[in-house]
Amino acid sequence: MRIAVVPGDGIGKEVIPATLPALTLLNEALGLGLSYEVFDWGADRWLGTGVGLPPGALDELARDYGAVFLGALGDPRIPDMAHGRDILLGLRRGLDLYVNHRPIELKHGVIDLYRENTQGLYAGVGGSVGRHGAATVAIDECVYTRETVERFVRSCLTRLRAAGRRKVTLVHKSNAVPHTGRLWQQVFRHEAEAFPELEASEEYVDSFCYHLVRDPKPYEGVLAPNLFGDIISDIGAALMGGLGLASSASICPETGFALCEPVHGSAPDIAGKGTANPYAASMSLALLLDHAGHEDAGRLLRTCTADVARGEAATPDLGGTGTTRQFMAEVTALIERRLTTAGAAPRP
Q1: Looking at the whole model, is its pTM more than 0.85?
Q2: Which residues make beta-bridge pairs with 307?
């Protein structure tokens, strides 16, 4: 598999490069057959050329690559985030990455949150009318097709069953948003009949968020429309300890293509200081390895990252004194020690 690496903006240009030595070590030691190429898509290129995703980029990715490893997008010089929408939403829609997996790692275990990633309020349907440069009427339409909801729900239930999950919860708001809400309910109830191993339940999004904060232990798998999933994922990150810990993978099950990225933003206030937490980037890389069929490598990266995060080499937000690169250098060193112990030392 070839991987397109896009560091992006702000701290993305620090945390993504910091993880690449760990990828190289795992690839060489375990013979994973991976390679990567770095692309400069981001704010600097947009400001210089007005281009976010270059012409032909989606075709090139679909033809020559199996995954994108993406950093954060966002730059104060582009306050409307035009380049971020062009790149990130362009990748999600253009590559049909409709399943967004955002694991919530808590002390009692992991909640697998799945967010539909291409339609809903993020479908880009709407407009505004105004005068003198001010909007007087603004409309954003929540659009869902049955085909999209069906394939999303079916794919997520399949993934949850394969992972040995026992419970799945649909989050919606059909009492206030009846048309798309009831579509989600109808599809979920119908598709769940084919998965008797999973105990299926439903909750309104406001009630679900309340219960998630109060006691997350009852939840194992969660399915949500685009906007609700976006909000829930940030609540989940807060329960984990912060946005710097949250990873994600956007997937097209039909093609096998994946885009893996940390959930946090570009954090321009700390960019360039060398203290950005690479935990989420490393965990997103572990998701990429899982997706590529290298679960053992993903598991090793995940456990080593978590172990280092509890020590002195962790970044200051986690209570350590390490820099971004020191954190990942210690992760890479720990991987090498464990590989050597297991008899899989890096190849010369």
Answers
A1: yes
A2: none
